[in-house]
Design goal:
With 432 residues, the chain is α/β, with parallel strands linked by helices. The chain is built from 13 helices and 19 strands. The chain has helices at residues 3-6, 13-31, 52-55, 63-67, 74-78, 106-117, 142-152, 168-178, 187-199, 221-231, 344-352, 385-400, 413-418; strands spanning 86-91, 101-105, 130-133, 156-159, 182-184, 211-214, 234-241, 245-249, 257-259, 264-269, 283-289, 301-310, 324-327, 334-337, 340-343, 357-367, 370-379, 405-408, 427-429. Strands 4-3-5-6-7-8-9-13-12-11-10 form an eleven-stranded mixed sheet, with helices on both faces. Strands 18-17-16-19 form a four-stranded mixed sheet. Helix 10 (221-231) packs parallel to helix 11 (344-352). The chain is globular and about 70 Å long. The N and C termini lie far apart (56 Å). The relative contact order is 0.12.
Length: 432
């Protein structure tokens, strides 16, 4: 697909199917170049890849397999592009195990940048806008690729980076002085900036920011509502992974992520059997990049995301040609406290529903030889700390069947603690 055609949304599902048919064959040919796939792809008929039975003969890949490659052999065994074709390297987004680095070729980058740029369509962003990009800048790609996508579409950019590169107080000052219409960053950092601004007596709902673009973290309904309320702006989310690129984004309906299926072939499967699940049922997301695989031979990559799939979303806008996935948000983690599993996103969603809550941190600690859930909270200046901590304690017991220790912190305590972190460490296990 020529570069100039990528931003043009395909006109039909039939057009997408043709692109996928050609792309799967190309993906197989590229994968066969890698030592990693030696013996894995034997007897796969490249002329029958549109037959689900033939396609599913290709074994699923996962990150544990890649991490089993000795580090000194990783680039030679897995990657198949010569060094003079490599434009940059992207760090894997996982938080566990040894981080992996994925080379991106100059050809890859054309498609990577444009996959990000598609998330500018639904919010109607363009030359009239300027953006403050507060995603981390560096080997995590989301910040610098979004910035380049904006500039490609003549959207001015302030490359602020996250708080570890531009202090949060300065970020707030830059919003006041430079008057961006768009703020881009991780959802947790958006909450952090709004909390800091409120503590300084600054009301971000009166700022110039009208649109917020987030990615790289789960976005619950409660978190979205909280960010929108604190900023007075419309919040949009994007879904991507370093193994592929920015794979999709939201329509105005906000009913899930429309996946760019002309760039990424996806499946949702039962991870025990490998069989496709029915539409609407939860399964593991499997991804095959069709154009960002010129150095990394990902084919049927099992990403670890648990999702549901819908062939059609509710929008009748330009993204309607793409299917929709909903993330189950079950890969992030959980606490097990006295036999009770507490899912991190569910706890976060629950706590952010309290409008007087500024921010929180959840920890599991050992107290008198017992595991205890400690919730450290900060409260709006206009709120009642005693009443809120009592409500949270009672409601947590009712919902999660665990009685927490609720600790009210001085305003700014969590902001100081979270400031140097790329992702706010809201969930910490401190058991002895």
């Amino acid at each position: 697909m020529p570069q100039k055609d990528i931003m043009a949304i395909p006109s039909s599902r039939d057009e997408i199917a043709k692109i996928q048919s050609e792309g799967k064959k190309r993906a197989l040919k590229l994968a066969l170049k890698a030592k990693f796939h030696k013996g894995r792809l034997d007897n796969i008929d490249e002329d029958k890849l549109d037959d689900p039975v033939e396609w599913q003969k290709i074994p699923l890949m996962d990150k544990d397999e890649l991490r089993s490659i000795p580090l000194e052999n990783y680039f030679e065994d897995f990657c198949h592009a010569p060094k003079n074709e490599i434009a940059e390297l992207w760090r894997s987004g996982g938080s566990t195990g040894v981080p992996l680095f994925y080379p991106r070729t100059f050809e890859d980058m054309k498609f990577c940048i444009l996959s990000f740029a598609r998330n500018l369509i639904a919010p109607n962003l363009g030359k009239k806008d300027t953006a403050q990009v507060s995603f981390p800048l560096g080997i995590h790609p989301v910040g610098h690729v979004y910035a380049r996508a904006c500039q490609m579409h003549e959207i001015g950019v302030n490359w602020a980076g996250a708080g570890n590169s531009t202090p949060s107080a300065m970020q707030i000052d830059l919003i006041n002085r430079l008057q961006p219409t768009v703020w881009m960053g991780m959802s947790s950092y958006g909450i952090h900036l709004a909390n800091m601004a409120e503590d300084q007596g600054i009301d971000l709902t009166t700022s110039s920011v009208e649109t917020i673009l987030c990615s790289a973290e789960p976005m619950s309904v409660a978190k979205r509502a909280k960010i929108s309320r604190m900023w007075g702006a419309e919040v949009w989310d994007g879904f991507g992974m370093t193994e592929a690129g920015m794979m999709g984004g939201e329509s105005e309906a906000k009913d899930g992520f429309h996946i760019w299926t002309d760039l990424f072939y996806i499946e949702v499967v039962d991870l025990d059997t490998g069989a496709p699940v029915a539409e609407g049922e939860e399964g593991g997301l499997v991804v095959t990049p069709l154009f960002t695989n010129n150095a990394t031979p990902f084919i049927r990559w099992s990403s670890g995301d648990i999702v549901t799939y819908k062939e059609h979303g509710t929008t009748d806008g330009p993204l309607s040609v793409f299917p929709v996935i909903m993330h189950a948000q079950r890969t992030v983690g959980f606490f097990k406290v006295r036999g009770v599993n507490i899912n991190h996103p569910e706890l976060e969603d629950f706590l952010f529903d309290y409008e007087d809550l500024v921010d929180f941190k959840a920890e599991i600690v050992t107290k008198n030889d017992l595991d205890v859930l400690r919730l450290s909270i900060e409260v709006l200046h206009s709120g009642d700390p005693v009443a809120l901590s009592t409500r949270i304690g009672d409601d947590t017991k009712t919902k999660f069947e665990v009685t927490p220790d609720v600790v009210v912190l001085e305003r700014g305590t969590l902001a100081t603690e979270f400031e140097s972190s790329i992702k706010a460490p809201r969930f910490v296990d401190r058991r002895d």
